[in-house]
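The following record pairs a protein chain with its ligand, WT7.
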Amino acid sequence: MSETLETLLDENRHFPPFDAFRSHAHLHDESIYATAAADPVSFWEKEALALDWIEKWHTGMEWDRPFAKWFVGGKLNACHNCVDRHADGPRADKIAIVWEGEPGEVRRITYRDLKAEVSKIANALKALGVGKGDRVSIYLPMVPELAMTMLACARIGAAHSVVFGGFSADSLAERTNDAQAKVIVTADGGYRRGNVVPLLKITEDALAIGCPSVDKILVLDRIGGYQILGHSERFVWWNDIVPNQSSECPCEPMDSEDLLYILYTSGSTGKPKGIVHTTGGYMTQTAATTKWVFDLNEGDVYWCTADCGWVTGHSYLVYGPLANGATVVMYEGAPDSPDKDRFWRIIERHRVTILYTAPTAIRAFMKWGTEYPDRCDLSSLRLLGSVGEPINPEAWIWYHETIGKSRCPIVDTWWQTETGAIMISPLPGITTTKPGSATHPLPGILAAIMNEDGKEVYAEFQNPGKSGEAPHARPPVGGILAIKHPWPAMTRGIYGDPDRYKKTYWTRFEEYYFPGDGAKVDEDGCFWLLGRVDDIMLVAGHNISTMEVESALVDHHAVAEAAVIGKTHDLKGQAISAFVILKQDHAGEDLVDELKAHVAGKIGALARPDDIFLCADLPKTRSGKIMRRLLRDVAEGRALGDTTTLADAAVVNALKVQYEDKEG
Ligand code: WT7
């Protein structure tokens, strides 16, 4: 057996903290966990003091389950905390953002310049009629103006809703309408793998679908459109309005609980959920966790590879690192453009010290081979992070050895759009890591494992019950993850839909937050996240609901019925697999490519099914519910699980034979 394989199979392989971190990391004393658990609110209140407050809060936390308020009565501005306090102090000439465009241009923006630029954009938004409390849709490529526009919104007290540039016109319209955005900020295009993504064209399509709340569209020239496209009242070119604004724009004093942003994420019942984040608690936890988990220091060059269209880009590219006055790297394009060494070239060029990326990317790099990282100088790296889905031990070890040269700690960070900030993660100065485990809930975060009946079966720092007995099973124990105590960055709800918020997250368990993930705890109290327990798929680290794709499929005129599952996939974690019944008059037609394109058109390219299987029937229970579990068995070539609740067991058997015929 090869050495690597042997170590992989050794469940107990563990990596104690490196000495350099053990003695120098921001957090290096284990007692912080117990201190924080004893009084989480006071613990987080102390952390909140790291921010600049215009007015201090009077109450640390108010809990009216499931609605939390943190730092009640406090006033602050997120943009001030990310920009002005650095620009107006000793970090004025420090680089805030180093940006690389996919075609190769590099821009270095100091905190001083960032303040001036953000202020101009903020004034331009005001000139377009945006005021405190309004919403702005941002549909931009990964250019500095994306981060700047987010900050400009925060500066004037408007909430942003960033829509990932890979989403379709339908998705942009749906999100814009749900948020009732007044302005859309977009660009004439963006670069992706050498191609141009026609963002302006897609925005026009969205407006044609109907976005009645939108007054103005602010258009950035990224691909030279300013020279060739027309001008109109409603569409305002960035060049015509932003550069001539004043670079002075005061930061709006915001209540700690004022809306900072809305970010849409997939829900298991179709329509995307507008996850709401407010100001004081969100800023406190993102700032603190960036510092602790990545052990951020003044000289670090920090690169989070996520797009600002996802929550990781919000919390760990913009708000968390900039609140700490860090230098962040931002990259516009694909990791294999122009060649498969692009990431490693960026690290080499900018002397990146901290890299935060996703398992799906790591698995792609593994497949491409070590020649690409090996031909670059990665010696500047000192810490590696992972987020988005469980990282398989094989990828962990590869990341550790090939990228980290066995000298960089890996932090596998578990969290969600809804949690706003990292919840479960190693601390590089304290934690002994294990490949594949996110290890422990962070200080101030109280997590538990529940059984199917909603009973708590494990929790750290559990006080004995009244009887004096600890009520828990001894680990190892598996079940469903729950969060026991409110945390500062937790979502304040689903925009405009408090009932759905309650139903989705607060009914599965009586008292605790339900994130929707399975988990187990091992003998050392390490948490292992085991993937979703609901109908959400994790495709390349992104949430896509089976329902969402099914709705897009049945929207096609030839489709009678569709069932969608996430099928295990080497690179993407899960790939979308659809079983489709065509309408009678289309039976026998080969519509597979057309249906794939239809889904991509409805939702965006990231939801395009990998395979579509046309069939005559779907396995259903007697009450008519499609049994996706059995479809997963079919797609993954397993023996069929329990079929006793099926209305007609013959259906799934026939399906299995037909599927294997096609695959074989
Ligand atoms: C879901 C949340 C957190 C930002 C990116 C995704 C899965 C995320 C991990 C991890 C195991 C993980 C969970 C979670 N997930 N990180 N380190 N280990 N699973 O945000 O789109 O809201 O997705 O991603 O299933 O519930 P999101």
